[in-house]
Design goal:
The complex is a heterodimer of chains A (239) and B (82). Chain A has 2 domains: 132 residues, no CATH class; 93 residues, no CATH class. By secondary structure, chain A is mainly alpha-helical. Chain A contains 13 helices and no strands. Chain A is elongated. Helices cover 79% and strands 0% of the residues of chain A. In chain A, helix 10 packs antiparallel against helix 11. Chain B is α+β, with helices and mostly antiparallel strands and 82 residues long. Chain B has a domain of 57 residues. Chain B is 34% helix and 30% strand. Chain B contains 2 helices and 4 strands, in the order ααββββ. Chain B has a 4-stranded antiparallel β-sheet, covered by helices on one side. Chain B is globular and about 60 Å long. The chains are: A mainly alpha (239), B alpha+beta (82). Chains A and B meet through helix 9 and helix 10 of A and helix 2 of B.
């Protein structure tokens, strides 16, 4: 017992030292993402304000663009916490985004904590790295997703056929929409699209969670293809 | 020791049960249930299913409702309450 006590004391001291170091490292590593996160929060704070300002303008200007407002509002929470930065930079108005980013960059040194002077040198690099990751969506592989949906065993044959019917119906509605012959608004198409995607993800999430997340993360990219007439024509859908 | 080994065996069994399960094709009942539910009919569980023909089934749900699930000539899945 007497021999073990000094060893235990040494272990305790070492543990305390490690805990102290880990706290320090957590602060250092935690604040590097926090500083980009703080501008992200600062960017998201004007983001909803910009969205709320944009939506009435578009609703007042054109009925077609009105559904894009709710579409953007729907997409922001669905894409996760990183998406609002991308959506706020892309959707509302591009000239405002660089201003806010420049403002954020200007506020970064102000909001940077004083004791971590060495870490602030790494914050611009750390802040520059996550932003492109959040801004650049993963490339859309429609053929691959389609093939994975065909091959997955998480959905039965009847259900797959039902989903295919639904997809064909939605694509037909988009086709008539792009031809200008549809009475359905883009907002209604968005609702149908969201509902169908929710059904697919719900059916997949238990049996094939990887495919479910792949479909879910491709939500906005697929929507961009559907709403762009040129991209929609490029996928070669024919009734 | 026997108690420990039994506990370890139980733990391994539980770990094996909670491990990743490969995606297998759902049963006909589960497929019919999903199809019935997607068509807007309530069906908690398919307790009985009868194959009438190719892609034509009669399913009985837990609440006693019976549905005919089939693929029509145009390739659409149709669910009819019987």
């Amino acid at each position: 017992m007497r021999r073990r006590r000094p060893g235990a004391l040494a272990i305790l001291i070492l543990l305390a030292a490690c805990a102290h170091d880990s706290r320090g490292s957590r602060v250092a590593t935690g604040e590097a993402p926090v500083t980009p996160g703080a501008p992200a929060q600062a960017a998201t704070e004007p983001g909803p304000a910009a969205e709320t300002q944009v939506v009435p303008q578009t609703a007042a200007s054109a009925p077609v663009s009105a559904p894009e407002g709710p579409a953007a509002n729907v997409s922001a929470p669905a894409a996760g916490p990183t998406a609002p930065v991308a959506s706020s930079t892309s959707s509302p108005s591009r000239p405002e985004a660089p201003k806010s980013r420049a403002g954020n960059q200007a506020t970064v040194p102000k909001s940077a904590p004083v004791p971590l002077v060495g870490a602030t040198a790494a914050t611009p690099a750390a802040a520059a790295l996550p932003l492109p990751k959040a801004a650049i969506p993963p490339p859309l592989d429609l053929k691959g997703l389609e093939q994975r949906l065909r091959d997955t065993g998480a959905i039965g044959l009847f259900t797959k056929l039902y989903l295919k019917n639904q997809v064909d119906d939605l694509l037909a509605q988009f086709k008539t929409f792009h031809q200008g012959q549809s009475e359905v608004t883009l907002g209604q198409l968005r609702q149908k699209y969201e509902l169908l995607l929710m059904k697919v993800v719900t059916l997949l999430q238990d049996g094939d969670p990887a495919l479910a997340s792949a479909v879910s993360s491709s939500r906005e990219a697929i929507w961009a293809v559907l709403t762009d007439p040129q991209k929609f024509a490029a996928i070669g859908y024919s009734t | 020791m026997p108690a420990r080994s039994i506990l370890g065996l139980c733990g391994l069994t539980l770990l094996g049960l909670t491990g990743p399960v490969p995606a297998q094709a759902p049963s006909t009942g589960a497929d019919l249930k999903a199809t019935i539910a997607l068509n807007g009919f309530p069906c908690d569980r398919v307790v009985d299913s009868k194959r009438n023909a190719d892609s034509d089934y009669t399913a009985t749900c837990k609440d006693g409702n019976r549905y005919r699930v089939y693929v029509d000539a145009t390739g659409r899945v149709v669910v009819k309450k019987l």
